Amino acid sequence: MSDYHLHVVGLNEDELHTLFFSEGQRPLGDLDLHTTREVALAKVLSTLSERDKRRALEIQERFHVDPTGWNFPVDQVPHLPTVQQAVWQNRRLSLVYRQESGNIMTPLVHPLGLVVKAGIWYLIGATHETIRPFRIARIQQIEVLQETFNRPEEFHLAEYWTAWCARFLPSYPVKLLISEDAIPRLLQLFGEALRDHLLRSEPDVSGWRTVSVVFETMETARAALLGFGPTAEVVEPRELRVSVMEWAEGLLTRYTSKTRDQNDLFPPMRPSRARKE
């Protein structure tokens, strides 16, 4: 189809933004589609009027979306192309899959679709029991079977994912007392959406504010809040408050004993007295 000619009528501002919004390369790169997207956009660009062409290039230079998260190791997904092929061809998959617990399962899966969230790829698949997500980086072995399957007509990928996230993602609400020094780090963790909540919380006479945030689990909350040092205090839940105190005491004991051991090995230098002649 190399002789195919594309004709695009004038695009309005919103349509130009939709087509030429600059996105990070990771998701399409994982699917080997980034170059294909660039070629497709170049073809569309060549058909635009000079005015629309200039505007499209301006949009690409002024907006960029990076879908990957901060400070997380990138998932290695060597089986993603195989999964993608099975999704397109409605072919059953035989998986060797490592669960989060470390247990190995060997399900037969009808691959219904692919989802990428914060740079992490998931296969949404139907087993004989249910429809569920499989994190593709945890697939140890994969075999595309000859058998095909019929997609359930009532299944809609985006609706399923939204409902699954709302229902199954862990949620651990925490009430904190924070100083002004904690605000930049808190915004780094939870994003600018938290700023309005912070502005609505009146500081007390000492300048501390009460805020409510949500972590995934107690463990992730504890790990994050220990990094705040003395700038944040857990108010609720009590189990988290006690856990943070215990870990802080453990750190203090560890570092105190290490310092004592080092002082035994390397006694602090004492200034020598000048010898009288």
TrEMBL record:
InterPro entries: CBASS_pafABC_assoc_protein, WCX_dom, WYL_dom. Residues 171-252 form the WCX domain. Residues 79-144 form the WYL domain. Pfam families: WCX (PF25583), WYL (PF13280). PROSITE patterns: WYL (PS52050). It comes from the Bacteria. PANTHER family: PROTEIN PAFC (PTHR34580:SF1), PTHR34580. This is Transcriptional regulator.
